[in-house]
Amino acid sequence: MPLLEELKEYLRIDGGDEDNTLSSFLSSSQMYLTNAGVKQPTDYYLKVNEKDVFAQHRLAIMILATHFYENRIAITPSAIKVAQITIPYGLQSIILQLKWVDPDELSAQQQSSEIE
């Protein structure tokens, strides 16, 4: 399932009216995570022995894209302290965990354990 379709399911959105906006939120979420030090896998849907290897990466993207989707407010300098909503604490915890994961190494480990 492509990330856009997964995000639409996560947000419970039918139709394609918001596809451009959601795609932008997905790209921004991936870039946010990359800038936070999280290496992104080449295949978000890698499964080894029925195990979804990068589910946590996708969850981080979904949480962040949802945050962007639900907090589309105009922030003016006078309202910045009142209107600013930080990213969810759970996402911060996931980011800290994922910063230590090398997706290429994890993929190789999972695939080699499948062979054994």
UniProtKB/TrEMBL annotation:
Record's superkingdom?
Bacteria
Question: Pfam families this protein is in?
Answer: Phage_connect_1
The family database entries (Gene3D superfamilies) matched by this protein are listed as: Phage gp6-like head-tail connector protein
Q: Which residues form a coiled coil?
A: none
InterPro entries noted in UniProt: Phage_gp6-like_head-tail, Phage_HK97_gp6-like
Please report the name of this protein according to its UniProt entry: Phage gp6-like head-tail connector protein
State the organism named in the record. Anaerobacillus isosaccharinicus
